[in-house]
Design brief:
With about 450 residues, the chain is mainly α. Helices cover about 60% and strands about 5% of the residues. The chain has 19 helices and four strands. The protein has helices at about 15-20, 25, 30-45, 55-70, 80-95, 105-140, 160-185, 205-210, 220-225, 230-255, 285-305, 320-345, 350-360, 365-375, 380-390, 400-405, 410-415, 420-425, 435-450; strands at about 145-150, 155-160, 265, 345-350. Strand 1 (about 145-150) and strand 2 (about 155-160) form a beta hairpin. Helix 3 packs across helix 8, helix 10 (about 230-255) packs antiparallel against helix 11 and helix 15 (about 380-390) packs antiparallel against helix 16.
């Protein structure tokens, strides 16, 4: 295996050592970022006079050729992506390629590459969040009056609307989008030029390379620049949070597409069949999202355990930040897309949902509220309606029982309050189903704006 070091060693490393420490297959994921960072570095070396302008120009031209070629011509019998790029550059422009590594280290290179890659991927994920929000908003508009059971403790609680339910998920993803913007703002500083850990005596211009690469500026402390991986932990954390909420949607779709609920039918393109049971229609994509959420959580907690005892300065342990990061980002991107497809193509059984909303005396609170609005202490009203619910044995009480509980003056209004549609739409306080129009308008404004400028 070809390396960029070895002059101080008398013998070759063991084959197992080479294989165990090799990262090229993982590193190829950000080959483009490595070459882009090298172009900025080479250009800066020429502009500061550290290298002759002719040498810097040849370096830049060779690196731009590598960008055009793509990763297929990069050697893979090497230790890492930095070695692969430098060796290929030598094949393209000759010995002058050896000057590229002046005033830098693989330590600041990999920190820069990872930030560049993460910035691009988080931007992509932000776009997919917006797409899912658009699907949720459109569904909420169509179903703003479609009544369904609202649940607490996974038991029917009060009637709500499917529109309110979809918008609850909308706001969760708005917060995730805002988190991504915060994270990007925090880590968008450039480590390049920090070298191994203490900078360099060459008169480099770290501000120039930071500007060229689109960073807000250089990381102010060279030791921190090469040691820090908190931005990776931040990205792993937000990936886990997004997956948690996608898993909650997946769980609902799994439950609601079953025969017991029958609220939704998932489309053919996101379901699978059984090899033995011809009638089966399995919500496999939702199940995989739910299951793989555990891997996103594990990547976050696993890398936190890796970092917890590392002293300042580069440590090879941090080489293992990238496999988990890449997996989590891929999981989030794919799961967002799949969830958008599942919701966009879902067929909701609105009559079944409305019927379920009326079951189980779910409008009991409306009746207690009616009594309280007429001057009865709410605790007394709660007790009366509770006894009424007990006598109804889990169903909606009959008119005779309601008459006995509330008296003849209130019985007609009380029976009207038991209607689930009226119950849902009467909850017009800020944030309730009867006030959904306000939410829809606010959400539409946020979606039209670039990014996620507000969490609400």
């Amino acid at each position: 295996m070809r390396k960029l070091w070895g002059g101080a060693f008398d013998g070759d490393s063991d084959d197992l050592v080479d294989r165990f420490g090799q990262s090229i297959q993982t590193d190829l994921r950000f080959w483009h970022q490595d070459v882009a960072g090298s172009i900025a570095h080479a250009r800066m070396l020429g502009e500061t006079g550290i290298l002759a302008k002719s040498d810097a120009r040849r370096l830049v031209e060779g690196l731009e050729q590598i960008l055009t070629e793509g990763p297929s011509k990069l050697p893979q019998d090497v230790e890492d992506i930095h070695t692969a790029v430098e060796l290929r550059l030598g094949e393209v422009i000759g010995d002058v390629a050896g000057k590229l590594h002046t005033a830098r280290s693989r330590n600041d290179q990999v920190a820069t590459d990872t930030r560049l890659y993460l910035r691009a991927r988080l931007g992509e994920i932000g776009g997919r969040l917006k797409k899912l929000q658009q699907v949720l908003l459109e569904s909420a508009r169509r179903h703003r009056r479609a009544v369904m059971p609202g649940y607490t403790h996974q038991q029917p609680a009060q009637p709500i609307t499917l529109g309110l339910h979809q918008m609850a998920h909308f706001w969760a993803f708005q917060r995730h989008g805002r988190r991504i913007e915060w994270i990007t703002e925090w880590f968008n500083f450039c480590p390049l030029g920090s070298a191994a850990l203490a900078g360099t005596w060459f008169p480099i211009d770290r501000h120039a390379t930071a500007r060229e690469l689109g960073f807000s500026g250089p990381v102010p402390n060279a030791l921190d620049a090469t040691s820090d991986r908190s931005f990776v932990l931040d990205a792993l954390h937000v990936s886990a949070l997004v997956m948690l909420d996608l898993s909650r949607i997946a769980q609902e779709l799994i439950l609601w597409s079953g025969a017991e609920s029958g609220f939704v039918r998932l489309a053919d393109n996101v379901t699978t069949g059984s090899s033995i049971m011809p009638q089966k229609r399995n919500p496999d994509m939702a199940e995989l999202i739910r299951g793989r959420t555990g891997r996103a959580i594990g990547n976050w907690t696993g890398f936190a355990a890796t970092m917890k005892a590392l002293p300042l300065g580069y440590n090879r342990d941090t080489q293992d930040d990238k496999p988990g990061l890449f997996e989590s980002l891929d999981l989030v991107a794919d799961s967002l897309r799949l969830t958008s497809i599942m919701l966009e193509t879902a067929e909701w059984n609105l009559p079944r949902m409305r019927k379920a909303a009326a079951a189980g005396f779910s409008t009991a609170t409306d009746l207690a509220d009616l009594l309280a609005s007429r001057g009865m202490p709410f605790r007394e009203a709660h007790e009366i309606v509770g006894r009424l619910a007990k006598s109804a044995a889990g169903g909606t009480p009959r008119r005779e029982a309601v008459l006995e509980a509330v008296g003849p003056d209130l019985v007609d209004e009380a029976m009207a309050r038991l209607d689930p549609v009226r119950s849902a739409m009467a909850r017009s306080s800020f944030g309730g189903p009867g006030d959904l129009g306000r939410q829809l308008r606010r959400a539409a404004i946020l979606l039209r704006r670039p990014g996620f400028g507000s969490a609400v």
